[in-house]
Specification:
This protein is α/β, with parallel strands linked by helices. The protein has a single domain, classed as Rossmann fold (3-Layer(aba) Sandwich), CATH 3.40.50. Helix content is 36%, strand content 20%. The protein contains seven helices and seven strands; from the N terminus they run ααββααβαβαββαβ. The chain has a five-stranded mixed beta sheet, with helices on both faces. The protein has a two-stranded antiparallel sheet with strand order 4-5. Strand 6, helix 7 and strand 7 form a beta-alpha-beta unit. It is globular and about 50 Å long. The chain starts with a helix and ends with a strand. The protein binds zinc ion. Zinc ion binds next to helix 2.
Length: 210
Amino acid sequence: MMSHLISIGFNNCLQCGSFAFRQSMLCRVCENNLFNSAYKPDLFESEVNQIPCMTLFRWQQDRNRILNRLSLGLKGTGQKAAWCYYASCVVQNWLARETPPQNSVIVPCPAVSDRHDHAYLFAEALSQLTGIPLIMALEKTVEGPQKNLTRRERVFRSGYQFRLRNNVCEKFSRVYFVDDIITTGATVSAANTHLRALGRVKAISLIIRR
Ligand SMILES: [Zn+2]
C-alpha cells in the first residue's frame, strides 16, 4: 500500500508533469519533442575510441532538457517498462542495419554488487527482443560513481573498473556491450579491454553525450 502511494507521484510525464504518462515516461508531446531533438537515425552507428557503437539519442549541449531528465529518470532498478520501450526503438534501428551474427552475446555494464540496475534492464530487454543471450561476463572492481571524477581521472581509472568473470571463457562472434549512456567513452574502452578476449565488441547505448 505504502509503495503504491509513493509511486503515484512518479506516474506523470518526467518533463511537463502531465498525467498522460506513457511507457516512455513522457507524455506524447514530450515524447515527440524528444525524438525531434535527439533522435538522429543517420548517426545511429558511430565509433567511440575506435569501438563501433549504436546509439538512439544524441545529446546536444544545452538543447536536450528532456534527455537530461530522462537519463536521470531511467536510472536505478525500477524502470523496466520504460527500458522495454526504448530497447524496442533501438532494436528497430539495429536490425534495419545489420543482422547480428550467430553466436552473438549481450553483456550489460555491471553494477556494484551485481544489482539489476538500468544497464541490466536495458540489456535484458534487448536480449528478449532479439533472442541474443545475455551473460554477465563482467564484474565491477572499483566501487563508487564516476560522476565526480575529471575526464583524466576517469580514463586513468577505467582500465581497473571491470574484470572478466572467471567462468566466462567461451568465444563469441560478436559481443554487444550495453550501457545507458556513453560520455567520455572510458567505460566502453574499459569494457572492450576485457571483452575483446571473448569476441569483437560493439557497444549499444541509449544516449551518447560527447
Ligand atoms: Zn510531457
